[in-house]
Backbone:
């Protein structure tokens, strides 16, 4: 699908076909395409929890204001940001070192910059995790549409409750959830509403 069509045709689907599963191979293809999203220093401070079992989906639904789409969709992804993704424990630093021909000065400089920009206080660490994982989330929805899979992002959720129920680490943060599957054609979606455009949202300074 052309990029322009992807953006024009993607919808936040409220009704999923419960009888149409999402194959593991398709989900894998979506994720492997979506991770081409940009991230600061290519640190990729994210991971994904896929709620697929009936038990997991019901638990997540209860923490999502009982939105029925969570249970109806074949899988709902929990997008998790890593607030400590800038530090030494991230294996991407080793990959970077190899990519720049073992130039330790370059990598050490990048580490110092990342530590200052993203690790110098809690607010910066949180912004780092959320902004980068947000890029991944949009990339997932576009990749899904490319493969004929519908989606619905959700932020009307119990972030703290999901953090606890799905045993996230203290340095992790729930960014959003994304239901994935196929639209239920027996139901009618709301008409697509207009977006505010260039003249409404852009200020030249």
Residues:
């Amino acid at each position: 699908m052309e990029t322009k069509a992807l953006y024009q045709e993607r919808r936040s689907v409220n009704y999923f076909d419960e009888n149409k599963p999402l194959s593991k191979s398709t989900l894998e293809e979506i994720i492997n395409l979506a991770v081409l999203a940009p991230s600061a220093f290519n640190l990729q401070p994210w991971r994904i929890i896929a709620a697929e079992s009936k038990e997991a989906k019901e638990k997540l639904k209860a923490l999502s204001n009982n939105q029925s789409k969570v249970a109806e969709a074949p899988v709902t992804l929990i997008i998790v940001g890593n607030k400590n993704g800038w530090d030494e424990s991230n294996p991407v630093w080793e990959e970077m070192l190899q990519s720049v021909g073992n130039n330790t000065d370059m990598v050490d400089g990048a580490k110092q910059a990342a530590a200052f920009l993203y690790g110098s206080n809690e607010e910066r660490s949180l912004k780092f995790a959320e902004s980068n994982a947000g890029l991944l989330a949009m990339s997932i929805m576009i990749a899904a549409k490319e493969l004929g899979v519908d989606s619905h992002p959700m932020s009307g959720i119990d972030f703290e409750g999901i953090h606890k129920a799905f045993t996230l680490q203290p340095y992790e943060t729930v960014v959003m959830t994304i239901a994935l599957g196929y639209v239920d054609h027996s139901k009618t979606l709301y008409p697509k509403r207009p977006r505010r455009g260039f003249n409404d949202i852009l200020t030249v300074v």
In short: The two ends are 36 Å apart (CA to CA). Residues 27 and 103 are 37 Å apart (CA to CA). The chain has nine helices and four strands. The first strand starts at residue 46 and ends at 51.
